[in-house]
Structures are given as C-alpha cells and as structure tokens.
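Many introductory courses stop at the sequence. We go one step further.
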Amino acid sequence: MTSYEGFIELVLACAPNLHTLNISGCLQYIPKLTESFSFTRLQHLRISDTKIYLSELINFLRTTAPTLKSLAYKFVTLNDEIETGAVEDKKKEAERLWRIAWDFLRDEISVKSLYMTRLQYQDIEVRVTDRLRRVCGYPKISSTDPRAVAYNDQSAHISFGEWIDSLRIRPFIRTGTRPVICAGLTRGINPNIRGRGPVGKPLQRRIQDTLRAMREVQANEDESGDRE
C-alpha cells in the first residue's frame, strides 16, 4: 500500500466522526474520496490556499451538506479551463463560476455562517462587494480583513439567500500572486482534524505519521528526478 492510499483510507475511516475539518493546500485527492463517502457529523469546514475545479469543489461540498453549519474560503482559486485567454473573457468567467459556487451554497447547503476572502479564478482576483454588510451579522469584518465578506445567521437581519444574492463581484488581474503549492501529493496538504470519539490525539498522530511518510516519498522522488 502506498502512502497516498494509506492517507485515503485514514480519511475514510475518520470521516463519519469529524466535526471540524481544515484543509490547506491541494484538493487533488478529494475527487476520489467523494466517490466513497459522505460526512455525517461535519459542522465546520475551512478551505485555504487551494486550487480546484468548480465541479470538484461542489462534489466535495455535497458530501458535507447534511450537517455543515459554517464554511470558510481563504485564497481559494477556481482553476477551470477557458478556451480564450482574453482578459475580459476571463473576468466574465471568473464572475460566472463563483456565482455558480454561491448559488450552490444557497440552494443545496444554506450554511449558517460563511466567510470568504482572497478568492480567485486562475490569475484573476475576485473581489467581492457586500452592500448589506451592516445587516449580515459581521458588520465590522472589514476592520480585520478589508477584502473579506462574511455572514452569520445568529446575528444577521436577512436570510442567507438574500445576502448571497446581493454580493457583487469585481474581477481584475492581480499585480502580484500568492503561490498556491500543488506539487506532488503532500506539499501544501495540512489537514487539521478535530472531533470526538476515535478522532482525537491517537488519530491525529496517525495522520501526521502518514503525512510524514508521504513527504519522504515525495522527497525521494524529487531527489531521483534531480539526479536524472
């Protein structure tokens, strides 16, 4: 069994018991996972520093739909292909794809809390304007992150659907880029898993041991490639 297969089995084993999942890095292993399971207790999900296709993101979120309450996106890049490389076409595609992503949250999940900042489509940064900031439950979010938008059902004066529909996208080419590491199976993967029952310190140690083995495999492959 490879380290990759071991990591997949480990996630499958703990998925039914997870309450909180933080994923930082690539989600290239997620499509295979979503074919096999659904989360049954997951309430809080945070995805950051990740490049992913829209369809893969939606399929992954569907596995969390029954119980998910809060979702956070930070430095998430939709990486779908486009036939033309024209800037204006890419801007339109950025708006179209992220609108589909938001409509999915509104229609199929309707989370209680959503936080988004530094969204992107390929090299197009997607800045979001929240015209209903004062009634969305996070009126002072801009003081901590000027580019963030957020919704909190407990203190909002409008529904999640009304809020998500009111958001406006302002796409533009970034002058500088934040690298999203997507090389190999382990670089940039940093799952932070917390839960009850079997999801505790022993399982966390197993996860770290598996990731360490995966990094060693990747390092050996890199070293072999350099010699060639």
